[in-house]
Write a structure and sequence with these properties.
about 290 residues, alpha/beta, Rossmann fold, eight-stranded mixed sheet, 10 helices, about 40% helix, about 20% strand, globular, disordered N terminus
Amino acid sequence: MNAITQLDIDSQVYSLYDEYCHGGIDRREFLQRSAALGAAGLTMALSLLPRYAKAQTISFTDNRIKANYVTYDSPGGSSGQMRGYLVQPTGSGPFPAVLVIHENRGLNPYIEDVARRAAVDGFLALAPDGLFPVGGYPGNDDDGRTLQSGLDQGKLRTDMLNSAKYLKGHALSSGKLGATGFCWGGGTTNWLAATLGDALQAGAPFYGAAAATDSVPNIKAPLLIHYAEDDPRINAMKDGYEAALKAAGVRYEMHVYPGTRHGFHNNSTPRYNPEAAKLAWERTVAWFRKNLA
């Protein structure tokens, strides 16, 4: 029998991490099963856990932006109220608006930083916290994931829909609305495109679940869809989604980034791929500038 190689360990730990990230196993089981692969497996597993000090690329005190937390009504949502992180470029506006939708664990520091990045690029950005009705992002991803999975998923999506409507109608908004999101937020971006119809002017989902096929004809916004190369669960939906988009006459671009895994844009974990993340974000900014002008 051949000895297990580091490449084998990496592959197995990455698969376990993906299962952990999406709620299939808890943190303890992730670490235990990784440790069963040997010391190298446990070391790799520990390295994959988020380090949010690395996620900040734009300081919350950056003089190019103004950021604050806002609350707003969310009828039909989890509690009737929502809270989000609103970031505007300096100046009087109005600005094209971009909704930034978090992963499956609430509004963590990485997503707040993405909202600041969007504002630096000239957009009024809102990053809603779907966990606000249950106390907000709890300060760590494990508890955040548990809280988010315990919410009524239909009401959670309604909170994102109401967040989009709030942002579009904000006094600083030009009325042109884009949406982007990551993992769960990517899937929600696709869902919003189908739900909002022509009220959304552009979407840029990152490695998110496809919109339901029967809802695709409702999509009016041009979509820029980002995929990791190694992401079996999400990529299994890709061909069917593309066929539905073509059949509905939706304008779209799909990009698969070589050498990447699910979560490659998140710079707080080793899944981060700097080159792919930079290119994907540059494409996203250009997409929004083109379609939200």
